[in-house]
Amino acid sequence: MSLYGGVEAGGTKFVCIVAGGPGDIREEVRFPTTTPDETLSRTIKFFSNYMRDNEEKLEAIGVACFGPVDLDKASPTYGFITSTPKPGWANTDVVARIEKALNVPVAFDTDVNGAAVGEGKWGAAQGLSNFIYLTIGTGIGGGAIVDGKPIHGLVHPEMGHIMLAQDVEKDPFEGYCPFHGTCFEGLCSGPALQAHWGKPAQDLDADHPAWQLEAHYIAEALHIFVTVLSPQRIILGGGVMQQAHLFPLIREKVKASLNGYVQSPAILEEIDAYIVPPGLGNRAGVLGALALAQGM
Amino acid sequence: MSLYGGVEAGGTKFVCIVAGGPGDIREEVRFPTTTPDETLSRTIKFFSNYMRDNEEKLEAIGVACFGPVDLDKASPTYGFITSTPKPGWANTDVVARIEKALNVPVAFDTDVNGAAVGEGKWGAAQGLSNFIYLTIGTGIGGGAIVDGKPIHGLVHPEMGHIMLAQDVEKDPFEGYCPFHGTCFEGLCSGPALQAHWGKPAQDLDADHPAWQLEAHYIAEALHIFVTVLSPQRIILGGGVMQQAHLFPLIREKVKASLNGYVQSPAILEEIDAYIVPPGLGNRAGVLGALALAQGM
After folding, report:
1. B4-113+283-294 placed in CATH 3.40.640.10
2. Is A128-277 a CATH 3.30.420.40 domain?
3. Contact check, Cβ <8 Å, A179/B260
4. What are A227-276's pLDDT values in tens digits?
5. B157 vs A151, A163, A227: nearest CB
6. Which chain A residues touch B68 with a CB distance below 8 Å?
7. Min CA distance, B200 vs chain A (Å)?
8. How high is the ipTM of this complex?
9. Strands B275-276 and B234-237
């Protein structure tokens, strides 16, 4: 059986696995994201030790990476983390460094594109060619699968940075995004909730007015994604979406916002199966990385 | 040389051509969109007469159609106009009717997807795999090309119906969309401008405050499309965009709105070549239909 590597390369922690598939994980390690040198060295060492100790070669390694990243294979900085504000990480070569050290081909995409690929292969979007995976947590990001593949393009989508309509009479919060103030991430991420309401999201009761507003904004964002991308399903993951009571609120508000315009039974009649949690739970990231490797 | 048919099937008029390519148009006809029976009969007659009179067979016919339409080839209503409010046209079979009458294969897509395909083949997006064609006129619609093909999905995009942030203190206009009020189309289409300012868009002077506001909203929409789709170029066509003075306003406002977040020279340094008018002008629709036929 072929073995693959997966790296969930997050801004806070890295998770690395060696696996034959999601049900056949041979080894796993996680460590905090520190400097690029230290973090990538630990990543490389994990895989090289595995291959040496087990006398096995990996077919490929998938890296689902925090960004922004360069996904353009024709670019001299392909496989780099580019302009991140994360100290020390701007202009970090990820792909070539791992490939050279291990002599294993590396598949590379954004963390959310990776998670989306994983959800399509083993999770909540199996059999679908067009869908979205969104994570709403420390930040907000989206991976969109169109015709079976993640969207790349000029750079890659930054779906957390769409602007939303805010009724400043009802909600005067100035937003938390340093670039856009009241964009989706600036209104709805975990840190935005904390800045808005003065305590961490997980300490807000289910009947706190924060959640009605949160569901309202998330529904606005989904209205936009439905009309721009026409996904067959929308998967909502991330720390904030652990608040399971958000799902019915969001579904109801998406229907109200679209107001019957998109004439599809998936939205009009079966919205409970249209807006769903990840099938892979909090394993979407690392299994997404594995899926990227298998898809090379 | 192979000959193809193209049908720009609009809600107001139909344009039909027989052509070998955009520089080799053999015959063209245009007529108003009346009832489905009359309009589709005239369409069929145009092509059957051409084939009979010239003793030539068409390889394929492309139909770029007003919608909503059913693009799902597995659906029993594939090739239909579905839930349009246009009187008489809901649930109209377009593809099978033309195919059966002429015994010629028919390619079918939305009007804006067709125009986008045409712009990619012969217009302002040649050589690009990811871009957007938007028409801002009587209505607003968008065709998005991802990895060389138009997005389909659950239904198809309805990019004119994204919601925009409106500062109701500065602009209390209640919007013109019967479904969503102040969505993109409800704020920026030709009829919305007329409802807002009391006269047709073409009668508003270039220094009328309407245009600053129009450019502001269009830029907001483009901010969303850039962050969701990451297009390599954005083409803006349609009647409202005949106001060429809008282009520099929109470009400046898009840059200001993205605020340096998307680190690409295309946006940061070369935005004049990033947000552009159609290369095919007002022929994008019918030549897009021709491109659909050639792509079968």
Report:
1. no
2. yes
3. yes
4. 999 999 999 999 999 999 999 999 999 999 999 999 899 999 999 999 99
5. A227
6. 263
7. 26
8. 0.95
9. parallel
